[in-house]
Design a protein that fits this description.
globular, about 350 residues, 7-stranded parallel sheet, 6-stranded parallel sheet, 2 domains, alpha/beta, Rossmann fold
C-alpha cells in the first residue's frame, strides 16, 4: 500500500525527549515501511525515519519562540501547514491517508482523492473537537481507547487501536530505589500538583520529569516551583529515552493523578515496561491500561492514592513487565495495517 502519514508539525519525529504523538507516528512509519509498504511522512523536514519525508516545514516548529509564547503565531503555523498538506494530498494518489495532525485536517476529507482516517490522540470533550468532529462525523476515525469515545459516541469509528511502545527501550531492574516519580507535561490537567500532595502526605521523595509548555509557565512558577526543594521534591525537566528507562525503572511507583480524560496514558505503559507499578486516578483510559491490584492501583481520590502507595510493594514487578507486552509496537503496527487493508479492499 501507498500510505501517507500526516505527522504533527510541532514534534520532532521521533521526539528526542517529550512527545507522545510523534513517538507513535515514528513507530508506525518505520513499522509499516519494514512490512514493505510505501510510506510517505508529511511532517517536519528533520524527521528521522525509514519512510520518505515530504517536509511541511524545514524542522519541527516547537523550538520557535513564537510557537512557544504566542497563541496567534501557533494558530498561523498550523493554518499554513494544513494548506500545504491539503495541496500535497490533492496532487498525489494514496491508498490511505492517516491523519495524526488532529481536527484541523478533518473538514477536507471529502475533497481529498484518497480515503482519510484520523487517529484521535487527545480527549474529545474540548469545544474545537466537539464542533469539528460532530460536523464531519462521517469521516473515518481510529480511537486509542474505548473510554476516549464517550464524549462523541456517534463518530464513524473504524477501530480502537491502543498505542504501542518499543519494549526494547526498557528493561526490568531487580529492585527499586524507594522514590516515586511523576512523568508528564507540567500542566494542571496532568495532576502534577496532586502528585506532590501525595508525596507530601507519604513524606516520600518524588522526582518530577517532563516539559513545561510556554502556556503553563505561570502555573509552574506560581504553584509548582515553590514546592521544589531538591531534596524531597525534585524537578529534572525533560528526559531522553535512556534517562526515562533509568528513572522509571528505579521508581517505587509512577504517580498519575490525572485530572483530564486522558485518551491513552503512554507513560503508564512505559512505567510497566520497566516493572514499575502505576498508581492513578480513575480518569480517562486508566482502567483500560492498568490492572487494579496486579500492575498498579486505580484510586478515586488523592487520599486513596496515598493509601495505595503505602502497599504498592505488593505488586510484582514481573507482572507489570508482562502486561506491557499487550501494548507492544508490533501489535499496534499490525492493527493499523489490518484497518488500512480493510479500507482499501472496500474502497471509499
Amino acid at each position: 500500500m501507498k500510505i501517507a502519514l500526516v505527522a504533527p508539525i510541532d514534534e520532532h519525529i521521533p521526539p528526542k525527549k517529550y512527545g507522545g504523538i510523534g513517538r507513535i507516528v515514528s513507530i508506525l512509519a518505520n513499522g509499516l515501511t519494514s512490512k514493505g509498504h510505501n510510506v510517505i511522512l508529511l511532517g517536519p523536514g528533520d524527521s528521522e525515519t525509514n519512510a520518505k519525508v515530504i517536509p511541511i516545514f524545514p524542522k519541527s516548529i516547537s523550538g520557535l519562540k513564537a510557537y512557544r509564547n504566542d497563541p496567534l503565531a501557533r494558530a498561523a503555523y498550523f493554518q499554513s501547514a494544513v494548506a500545504k498538506i491539503v495541496a500535497i494530498l490533492q496532487k498525489q494518489k494514496f491508498d490511505i491517508i492517516n491523519n495524526h495532525l488532529g481536527w484541523r485536517l478533518v473538514p477536507f476529507h471529502k475533497i481529498l482523492p484518497s480515503p482519510l482516517i484520523t487517529t484521535l490522540h487527545t480527549p474529545l470533550d474540548e469545544s474545537n473537537k466537539q464542533i469539528t468532529y460532530t460536523e464531519y462525523q462521517s469521516s473515518r476515525f481510529i480511537s486509542i481507547s474505548k473510554n476516549q469515545r464517550r464524549p462523541l459516541p456517534k463518530l464513524n469509528y473504524v477501530a480502537t487501536i491502543y498505542n504501542g511502545i518499543d519494549l526494547d527501550l526498557y528493561n526490568l531492574p531487580p529492585k527499586h530505589n524507594g522514590y516515586f516519580v511523576f512523568l508528564g507535561r507540567m500542566s494542571p490537567e496532568k495532576g502534577v500538583f496532586e502528585a506532590i500532595k501525595v508525596a507530601k502526605k507519604l513524606k516520600a521523595k518524588l522526582i518530577l520529569a517532563g516539559a513545561i509548555p510556554g502556556w503553563n509557565y505561570q502555573f509552574f512558577d506560581l504553584k509548582i516551583r515553590p514546592l521544589i526543594d531538591d531534596k524531597q521534591i525534585i524537578f529534572v525537566g525533560e528526559v531522553t529515552d535512556r534517562q526515562k528507562n533509568r528513572l522509571l525503572g528505579r521508581a517505587r511507583a509512577l504517580l498519575a493523578p490525572i485530572k483530564c480524560n486522558e485518551a491513552f496514558g503512554l507513560t503508564f505503559v512505559e512505567a510497566m515496561a520497566c516493572g514499575t507499578p502505576v498508581v492513578a486516578l480513575a480518569r480517562g483510559s486508566a482502567e483500560e491500561i492498568i490492572v487494579h491490584g496486579k500492575t498498579g492501583f486505580i484510586a478515586r481520590s488523592v487520599d486513596q492514592m496515598v493509601k495505595y502507595c503505602r502497599v504498592v510493594d505488593k505488586i510484582k514487578r514481573e507482572d507489570c513487565r508482562d502486561h506491557a507486552f499487550q501494548f507492544s509496537a508490533q501489535r499496534m503496527v499490525d492493527g493499523y495495517e489490518k484497518v488500512f487493508q480493510k479500507i482499501t479492499e472496500y474502497g471509499r
